[in-house]
Fold these 4 entries.
Entry 1:
Amino acid sequence: MKHLISSEQFTTDLLHELFVLADQMKSNPRDFDDALKHKVVATLFYEPSTRTRLSFESAVQRLGAKLISTENAREMSSAIKGENIHDSIRVVQGYCDAIIVRHYENDAALKATEVARVPIINAGGGTGEHPTQALLDLYTIYSFKQRISGIKIAVLGDLKNGRTIHSLLKGLALYSDIEVFGLSRKGLELPDEYIHYLRDKGITYHAISSLEDIPASIDVLYHTRTQTERMNGEEAGSGEIIIDQAVMNRFSDQSLLMHPLPRNQEISADVDSDPRAIYFKQSENGLFIRMALLYSYLG
Ligand code: CP
């Protein structure tokens, strides 16, 4: 891969190579201290981020590379003066060996590749995709279950605007015998293009209407917040799907609860101490899988 724009680019072989490398980096981080010693990586974030930006920036530093960064690039870079993404990439690539882009437009990272001679990594684009989140989600599932094929997963929340869901589903579609249950409130259903994508890959997708429709033996519950920043007040509405301890008590002791974070009220704090609630371990895995990804591009 020259660039990483979509989970459609993954293969199971590539994912498993990254999982093995991420495991090594987790166990022996010091072994990679100088792995990218002479490299420079740029992070261009036109939308807010805590996990993706800081885990990428930590990964850069832990691999011994140098970092150049613009947080809030929408206002604090020359984008505010009208510079388009093509010109920004043409300029920034002169200063670095890879560019990590988060943008409010779905196709900005793809546009960046049209002029880029260094790798472009999509760190989340609008309501489209977030492939490196899918990497850490798949790595987390694999770490806890020792397999991905054969899992049953329920995706919950804002299935329409949630780019983490879109990229995760495309990643899961690489594996066999996956069954997906989708639950959202009205208006935030999974767009048809993803349902068709799953169907074309032989994945069963059940659009369900209640938490009661999820089998008690589900392997993974993957919840997401409502992306209110992409809606007007009326659309944002109310009626969140809430997971609390009473809900978790319905599921098996092997049912993992994941969330890309940040969360709002959709997972109540009483669940945090449940050993099945693995969202903070999930976000920590973002560091190791992003180290593995950068190493595979630049090492
Ligand atoms: N999960 C995720 O993308 O979080 P941030 O928006 O904080 O990067």
Note: The pocket of phosphoric acid mono(formamide)ester is lined by residues 49-52, 124, 130, 133, 260-262 (CB under 6 Å).
Entry 2:
Amino acid sequence: KEQVEADNLPRSDIIARSVTILRENDFGGYTIPAKGLYPYQWNWDSALVAMGWAMFDEARAWEELETLFSAQWADGMVPHIVFHRPCSTYFPGPDTWQAGSSTHSSTGITQPPVAAISVRKIVEGSGNREAALRRAAALFPKLMRWHRWFVTARDPEGRGLVATLHPWESGMDNSPMWDEALAAVPVDPIPPYVRKDLGHVDSAMRPKQAEYDRYLTLLYRFRAVGYDPAQLYHMSPFRVSDVCTNSVLYRANRDLRWLALQLNETEAVFEIDSWLERARAGFETLWDGSAGIYRSQNQLTGTLIPAATSGGFLPLFAGVPSTDRASVLADTISRWADSVRYSVPSFDPADVRFEPLRYWRGPVWAIVNWMITDGLRSYGHHKLAERVIRDTRTLTSSSGMYEYFNPIDGAGAGGNNFSWTAAMCLMWLD
Ligand code: 2M8
């Protein structure tokens, strides 16, 4: 029997809409995030979307991840965008980046490593576990190489936290978390450029020009050293410990460890254990007990970044905090949720810099809500998790499958018919 909550679409409609979006954004082995705005394969989008595909077409889910890893670099990095085919609707594209592996053109930076999380989910949900484990086994060494790259290329000093060298790597591009660190990046005399994003979406919903100038400055500086990871870590004028990336990596390492056990890869288990142990110590340095949230850190200045964002709840998804600390985090989420209509805003609504419509500076994101609710459930905070899920369902039912949503009036913003939003709706149905 259909369960219809107030304002919400029936289950069958959610499935039909979501499946249609994924199929329409399927460009043959990879899913673009949204037509026009994002015409290539994005790293963490693909890994999240694969979980959505798995709900109705497992073979297609595996293909998504296999296509992503076909662009893995020789050093183990998996790039943040893979440019499978030319397209003129996005900037900066392959001509600007001038990067890639021997077979694929790509960007020269990475994104939060969701793939191992996705692999575990797909295996666990599979009707044919043996066959699923065979597909997973083929990806396993590639996942190990990518995670090892994070530890070696991005934590060469053994902090226990990996560095993010570009706001695009964080996936939360214009988050207030990066304001100070990005403002400290000098703008070089870069070639003139035309932003294509503003041809698709209202400028009030996107990063500002000063941010783009710095995004591009970083890109050109990285390009000048051939994206050599050893040099990048030391020369990048932007280097942060991003709480989201580190949480995703921690969770991904736990899930990779699970897979290693399934595959009897004992040595890998020991290696992953050492990464996890190191990271646990790292997370301790990000906890802000008085504010009840985890923060990111500017590695270049050593300062804990004052902006509290929804990324600060993601250690719940990682499984890092104690149960006491998890309750403190749940209280902070509830407080934020009480001060807006739809949870969870991406930035503290009480902060003067909160902007309900501008991208990563306030709007609700379905993928972050999925990670938060997965974490809340694992700590037993079911009521709060249900509230967040209900809010996201209402938003997607009444406004559409948008990229993000205004937490105050619920309006959809950014791109429409968005792949990861559709995928998360499918994830919540099981
Ligand atoms: C957004 O980022 C891209 C750059 O990577 C952009 O604005 O052009 C972010 O929301 C990022 O997290 C996401 O992966 C990407 C595609 O959905 O869009």
Note: The chain has a mean pLDDT of 97.
Entry 3:
Amino acid sequence: IKIKITNIDIPVAFASAFEGEIIRRGDMQVEFDGSRVDCCELVMTKDASEIEDHKITLVGPDIDEMPVGSKQSICYVVEVAGKSMQSDFEPVFERKFHSYLNCVEGMMHTGQRDMIRIRVSKETFEAGFRAKHIGEVLYAKVKSEFAAVVDKCQVTIYTDPAECTRVRHEVAMSLFDKRDERLNTLTDEGVDVYYSCIMCQAFSPSHVCVVTPERLGLCGAVSWLDAKATNELDPQGPCQVITKERPIDERIGEYEDVNEAVQKLSQGALEDVSLYSIIEKPMTSCGCFECICGIEPLSNGVCIANREYAGMTPIGMTFSELASMTGGGVQTPGFMGHGKHFIASKKFMKAEGGVARIVWMPKELKEQVAERLNATAKELYGIDNFCDMIADETIAEDPETLLAYLEEKGHPALTMEPMM
Ligand code: SF4
Ligand code: ZN
């Protein structure tokens, strides 16, 4: 492989060739694990006077003071300033950290926000890699990739456990909540434009996501605000403005402008898409959807499986079996990839009657979305505790047992219009 080393002051190589690198337990010097201890990564916009450019600070022990193979806390806060900087850009920068840190030889990064996990290999540690080098990578990449909006940048890395607890709970979580609230107040009707995203065309050449306030990208990582920020940061980039001035069919969410954009961006592979239907002209799926939903004919509803779920669904297929027939950038009526956040959206399958069609979900996913989904069902249909009516793998893995449960609970899908 050809390795292009960019000019970053670290003792190991930096190249996209390392992005897929796996670091096994036995090969790791140290692991930072947000699912077990307090971790987070965040970008904060500051006034230029508060920032000393290229200052990198470590608060807490360095990697050579951590026991080999141990699980540690880490929070890194990247503070930026610039005349054109906006706080809406912060999550877009953060999302890039995953790829930046994975480009470091002997470093593995997964997740985002406070659910990150990072491994540093023994070899990379022995080459001299220390905590401050994380700061060097983030500084160099943010300064070069976002030069148009970032004039000054400084990075603080916290490894002291008490400081990590403070930063995560007192700084990061409220910032993340504020961002989510801002998005939750936006509706599809309330905005003038939607955005396309074609970031996945690298491996799904005809795939186009249409991102709206109430329907995020199917990877779960690109909200309407993120797409908007991406477009402002790079007007020729992967996210383009789509107007919505010429509706064709409000029921399924079809627009002439959206169809034209999708035709152009898919190089003619796609004719038309709807935003709110799983049966009529559904949106395409690439490969990185967080969830798939598919029709379960006996119950007149849909089952949803998330990527983490390895078991069987009442449709008779596992997540990966569903994925193999849904992905690849083609329209598959009756099946659709989507983000987790979309499950509780008032626009979820709106054309087919909305979230009341959901009859089955893995237990873990149900718990993750319960609060928001219950609120949506209450608002749309006046149903309390809707999630109690939805079956999971502990209740049913076949259509007959599923149907019996739904009948017992009086699930609304049973009395809705036939879907097919
Ligand atoms: Fe963009 Fe959609 Fe790919 Fe997410 S899944 S990166 S929104 S094209
Ligand atoms: Zn994708």
Note: The chain has two domains: 16-184, 193-415.
Entry 4:
Amino acid sequence: RMVHRTMVDQFKYALVWGTSVKFSPQRVGLSHVLQNDDVICLMTDDEHRPLLDESGRHHTYTSLNAYITTNDRQTCTGANTTFATGEKLLSGRYESLDYECDESEISHMEEKRLGHQHRRRLVVVKWFVMLLIGVCTGLVAVFVDVSVKNLTKFKFSYVQNKLDSCLSEHCLFKPYLTWIGINVAFVLVSSILVLWEPAARGSGIPQVKCYLNGIAVPHVLRLKTLIAKVLGVIFAVSGGLAVGKEGPMIHSGAIVAGGISQGKSSSLKIDLHIFKYFRTDKHKRDFVSAGAAAGVAAAFGAPVGGVLFALEEGASFFNQQLTWFIFFASMVSTFTLNVVTSAIDGHFGDLSSPGLINFGLFKDVPYKWVELPLFIVMGFMGGIFGALFNQLNLRLTKFRHHYINKRWLLITEVLLVAATTVVAAFLLIFLTMNECRPIKTQLELNSPTIQLFCPDGHYNTMATIVFSTPEQAVRNLFHSEIGTYKAWSLLAFCIVYFCLTCWTYGIVVSSGLFIPSLLIGASWGRLFGIGIHTLFPSIYFNPGKYALFGAASQLGGIMRMTISLAVILIEATGDIVLGLPIMIVLTVAKLTGDYFNEGFFDIHIALQSVPFLPWESEVFSSPLSALSVMSTPVMKFKTVEKVDTIYRVLRTETHHGFPVVDHHTDESNDERAGTFQGVVLRHQLITMLRKRNFISLNDCLRDYLTMDDFRESYPRHPSIESVYLTDEERELYCDLRPYMYLAYTVSHHSTLPRIFSMFRSLGLRHLIVVNDKNEVIGMITRKDLARFRLTHTKGHTSIEELGILS
Ligand code: ATP
């Protein structure tokens, strides 16, 4: 849209940007906002002169409501708000991780000093750390499992006793209220833990995905998060919510790995002075991938699935050796879980429970080729239901951001969900109170049986699902004999559980989505099987098998992971014969779901305004080049820079990387001059200031800081506010040459897709744009790339540019 100055003047309010086509919040001079749906802003330079593009038109920007509402609430009172968190925004609070090899002079010096032997030793130590990660993740999984089992057992036996005695005394409201009371108390504990550490909210998979993508999500790997996550999920699952414990295991594994590999705990202020060479983002990322994989392995008993999960999320940095490391950690994790669980269950050595979830043994599973079209139909259904689920949850999450953002509201919602879940379960039991089956068949499934209103020797089918853990419920649906569940009760259960799961994900508790999705899918899958059996009574169709494919299809439709999910499910079922149908339903479900919207976790990542880089740039055919993407002018330093200049820049700018330029060329006073020498990071500069690594002009640096000095504070580097300098010190100089590293550069002619693939495949944090004379003219970070998206509105595709919120 073209906006002329006269047009802007006509508006009572106008929004004026402080600089160039890029709108960086630090430089935005926000004055007023249009009280309109579309905010139109005029791009101006530093003197507030309108900027013109090549064709003489003004640069304009539209649809910035989100930015305005979050950044300047006061000014925007009454403005039309779209999203409180800003879907059209990238949040500046997410930093990137440093995955680049350190090529600085001091790093080379250290390598030379330590020699080749050191590299070999590191590999051995790495195997050892992987072993520890596997063992610890397995033990965490056991702890979660045992705690959930015991709490659930205590709760159900208590409620069932009350129920049994009240059946004759007609006081059913008592067990009902007891059940609500216990559930609400458990869930309250879970939500208090999450309010204590908000990073433990939800499943944690989006955060792990972001970490593997190269984003440092605040608090994601903290000990506090692990405690809140583990205890939170135990109480959430035991509190009867429609959540699972498998997703949080992936996050827990990642935290365990992040912590163990560093040999220290910043939270506990303990430093064991071991594994110090692993205190870099690059090494830590490898361990975190192994931890996430070990988490998958422990959750599903699927070590290969774990490796594939890590591979699917972080394939750009994988190599053969790392794959081995991760596979090893996954195997150790599932083995540890297996051994300890067998010991707890009283059959030590009988390694038959490799994961938290056990789908049980499938009988009569062979399928005929005539069933393949049915699997495709099921995949299609899973895709549609999954897309519907994602869409509903997206709307609910936006609603929450808007209206449920105070602590008391968050807690109220949690309590409401907990109470509603019990009410719904009770209703389901009463609606199906005459559905009884002989007890002997159920005993084979090792599942509790609840008699309720049934005659002796019989149990109530719905009560048995509702009164067991979600994992047991899934197993029941997979293996109960034909005729156990009536069609309409399955339908009722499916609808109720679908709504509950959709509502539950996102409340302030630690919660996983795998098991609830499986349960929804298993119920409609079984229903589908019953339908087929009714249509073709002469052919024998095992409804349990259809429950499995329904579960796979629903999971695929929600998550949209294909390879890892297929392998996870095959490993969890333990029957390779089912591999092909599982792959078919997952693929069809993904393709169908992708037609409507993104995968569940991708939606949540976008909602959090994370600068997540997909595999490839969406903006393919665009004429966008480095010039239109980069930030300019660049804040840079000379190779020997005055302490006062460094200090002032660090106090005023929030950037984490600064190009270092040759100071001889820079003396021309030309803004663009200065040939590129390297990049120095913010934390390095702060360490130099704190350690007083100064020289006087014309002196040369003799006391180099070592790599250990920079590692000391990893990963919580001190801020510039912690530095105090005297006036004399400010007049001294810093020699940046030994500490800077040679970052990648691109020519200003490079196109966006090319820059994008460099970022993605090399795991870059800063990319320097240079001109033909190797002079620094621009800076590109991941936020500059994540800002450009394709939007499709009313059949028209255009490039949308998001704002960056500090
Ligand atoms: P990271 O988030 O990876 O830690 P950063 O904090 O250095 O990187 P971002 O927050 O990604 O930088 O950048 C915000 C905006 O500032 C981006 O548009 C980026 O191009 C710009 N920018 C980053 N560093 C500089 C710099 N040294 N000079 C000028 N602009 C910069």
Note: Residues 369-420+470-607 form a domain with the Clc chloride channel fold (CATH 1.10.3080.10).
